[in-house]
Amino acid sequence: MNAIDELVGAEHARAAAATGDTGAAVRRPHGARTADLVEREGLASRRVGLDVGRRFRDAGYARLDRVWGVELAAALAVDALDAADEARPPESGPRTPVTTERANLSRVPVATTPLLDALHQALAPMARTLTGRLVVPSFAVYGYFAGDDECILHYDTDASDITLLVMALGQVAPLHIHPELRGLSVDELGRLECDPSWDRQSGVPIEYSRSGLTAICGRVLPHHRPKGTLDGLSAVAALHYQAAFRPASGAADEVAR
Ligand SMILES: [Fe+2]
Fold it and tell me: What is the model's pLDDT at position 254?
């Protein structure tokens, strides 16, 4: 058991003792206290080197480790766990046209919470430094995986000029991003996704952190996760930001050259 898991267990025990609840379900022990944690981390004023932003814009992805401490990481794990039974498939369907069987994989149940919203707002300056653009928070969700963590090949929505990904709860396998497929249409991605001969281990694997960020330009770079089995429940926090101003054409190239 790592330090974060120990803190999660301790937090549940503390909440159970405080409420006299000896059952398994302890709802939302944190509330405002965890939102304060985001403020205490000083994320809104955290500097990101211009060189990191340049690397993100060149490659379309970047990883920033140790952005916050184990206390906030543990709070995110508890928060994701407590919101799990409110998770529902997103209302909008997959953008990649695939068979019904593959499309069902893309309907990852999602939920959001005040803590996630606080983190989303606090990281907006960092998202602006990375993109070099005036991006604003568009939406933030925990996406839940149980049994397996496969994601079909897809682009993120138009509301995602940058997505900051965090391993909130448990552990999913690395995401595979595909610079080599950049520029393909969603129909072409769909044909690849449904092609059994397509190498599902292809792409650049990038890992998520529990106390840091994996930033991707998912509207421009196709990405997927190969099929893998999971023990227990895992949740990935996805914080999406959208450019406040977007040129009528060529916007995608401007974000990740
Ligand atoms: Fe995505």
Answer: 40
